[in-house]
Amino acid sequence: MGSLSIWHWLIVLAIVLVVFGTKKLRGAGGDLGAAVKNFKTAMKEGEEDAPKTLDQLAQSGGKTASEARQHDEHKS
Q1: Residue 17: helix, strand or coil by DSSP?
Q2: pLDDT confidence tier of residue 37, bands split at 50, 70 and 90
Q3: In terms of residue numbers, what domain contains 50?
Q4: Buried-most residue among 4, 10, 25, 32 (CB within 10 A)?
Q5: What is the pTM of this model?
Q6: Domain annotation covers residue 35
């Protein structure tokens, strides 16, 4: 009674197909795929932008958070 066999999963799949229909399931799968693709694209863009902002910070003479903490520790 602990785990479900392959037959249980096939029955559940058949019920889901009858209730929702293949068109809705296909649309939901497409939406999920598009969301994953957009997430990966955003992650790549974030990785590309991060070094640029650090370089800009260094050129402008700004301090990073760790540099500011070190400066504050040396003051006290």
Answers
A1: helix
A2: very high
A3: 26-75
A4: 25
A5: 0.44
A6: yes
